[in-house]
Amino acid sequence: MGQPWDVVVVGSGNAALCAAIAAQEKGKSVLVVEKAETDLAGGNSKYTAGAMRFAYTSNEELLPLLLDPEDERIPNTEFGTYTQEKFAADLLHFNDGRPLSVEQKALIEKSYDTMLWLASHDVKFEPIYSRQSFLKDGKHVFWGGLTLAAEEEGVGLVESEMEAFTKKGGQIRFGCEVVDLIVENGKVVGVKTRSSDGKAEDISAKAVVLGCGGFEASAELREKYLGKNWIGAKVRGTPHNTGRGLEMAVALGAQEYGFFEGCHATPMDLFMADYGNLELPHMERKNYRKICYFLGVMLNANGDRFVDEGKDFRNYTYAQFGRAVLEQPGHFAWQIFDSKVFDLFYGEYLFHDAHFVEADTLDALIEKLDGIEDKAKVRETLAAYNAAVDSQTPFDPTIKDGKGTKGLDLPKSNWAQTIEKGPFRAYPVTGGITFTYGGLKVGEDGAVQRADGSAIDGLFACGELVGGVFFNGYPGGSGLTSGAVFGRRAGYGAAEHAA
Q1: Alpha-carbon distance 44 to 127, whole Å?
Q2: Which of 309, 179, 300 is nearest to 251 (CA)?
Q3: DSSP-based helix, strand, coil % in the chain, nearest 5
Q4: Residue 364 — φ and ψ, nearest 5°?
Q5: CA dihedral 60, 65, 67, 70 (to 10 degrees)
Q6: Which residue from 161, 269, 345, 488 has the least number of CB within 10 angstroms?
Q7: Are 223 and 421 in contact (CB under 8 A)?
Q8: 416 and 389 in contact (C-beta within 8 Å)?
Q9: Distance CA 127, CA 481 (A)
Q10: What pLDDT score does 283 carry?
Q11: Residue pair 203/33 in contact by the 8 Å Cβ criterion
């Protein structure tokens, strides 16, 4: 197998690259192996908007993280605060009564420090003015605790991390699939690989870090862990996250750990091609998501609303509402809006391949809602909704404004406005799966553990493979932060093991 590398990292997304940078920082020789060729390298991270959720207590704490701290908008911006206590409360909101897990506590406590660490490697960030703030009384007011994203979003994040890794001598092999782990005397000592042209090669290592994603791109594993509804779910990320890392670790006795029934699922354009349409540039693939439902209502094939579209900021609901859409008859829904909110749409609603119907009157729009046979029921639902809207409370998208409905069995709690001003638009959506929550149990050093708590010698994991971080949903932006926190930890752990 030749001279061993100190550390081999499997995968090239955010978590894997953080592991590689961390191990390299400790003076170790590090090789990253990536199944995809360069065009699809970067995993699911490249599909994201690059936003990262972390705890902070002041505008000043954000300045060291900024690509351009001299941006003229900064003095006129209210970023607010996002304390560790608030981060904890947001995670607990999705835990269904569970206390914070050990992994969640680590995510919270290490979130800001990890952001500073990334910045120290020239991975810098920009305020998310376009999607996380509104102008109010002449100020940019941020909402929802999510303030910063990488320049050029997920693509830029991965490219910045790759540059940080390679400029210090790190190597990446693309088109290099790991097909198995090499084990000698109970210790992981390398990986068996196959190149895109079919050539097999064994690569030896003192430690191996699995950062190769979850199982969302495997219909077989989706059915096994998530249920039959998920067999046909649209995969909005990479086609390469098929659960192979999970399977290899479990075959060595690793403990399956976390909420395997859960996943990150987003309302997506019903007509999106799988994997976000691989014919498009990476930066455009995320535009099939449709998460402005809080500005209107969603109706299923029976003509009924099925969620409280305004129960919370969309950062806290979209990962649940994607599942809710998929559970509806026919696995689809229509998002309905009137022209009062068109100027608040995110860019994805104006995307050149966005699918929607439009009409000057609500009756004409309803007739265009394919898949809903009972058009009279739609009229009844929308009429009841319009009649229930609180007309006294002002609409304010910068806060949970309490502008809700009254008297409906299923309320809309915030941002409820009548749907009555033409033209009208309706967008067909389904549930798109992004990443899975079930994974492996890892120790404080990122080492993969067996059910008895012992570590598998030489094997570490990070990213989607770390179980116990998310349960029945998650606050937006915490996925990338989790990848960075646990990637860094696994990299340091692997480096120490390779000493």
Answers
A1: 22
A2: 179
A3: 35, 25, 40
A4: -65, -35
A5: 10
A6: 345
A7: no
A8: yes
A9: 16
A10: 85
A11: yes
Please check whether residue 62 is in contact with residue 74, taking contact to mean a CB–CB distance below 8 angstroms. no
d(Cα 101, Cα 107) in Å, to the nearest integer? Answer: 10
CA distance 14 to 477: 13
pLDDT tens-digit readout, 420-446: 999 999 999 999 999 999 999 999 999
DSSP class per residue in 87-143: HHHHHHTTTTTPPPPHHHHHHHHHHHHHHHHHHHTT--EEE-HHHHEEEETTEEEE-
* 70: Cα within 13 Å, side-chain hemisphere: 0
3-state secondary structure of 298: strand
Q: What is the pLDDT of residue 315?
A: 86
pLDDT, position 398: 87
User: Are 338 and 421 in contact, with CB atoms under 8 Å apart?
Assistant: yes
Per residue in 303-342, pLDDT tens? 999 999 999 999 889 989 999 999 999 999 999 999 999 9
Low-confidence winner among 51-65, 130-144, 353-367 (lowest mean pLDDT)? 130-144
**Bond before 423 cis per omega within 30 degrees:** yes
Per the CB < 8 A criterion, the answer to whether 64 and 121 are in contact is no
Tell whether the model's pLDDT for residue 1 goes beyond 70.
Answer: no
| pLDDT on residue 238 | 95
Contact 26, 37 (CB under 8 A): no
338 within 8 A of 420, measured Cβ to Cβ? yes
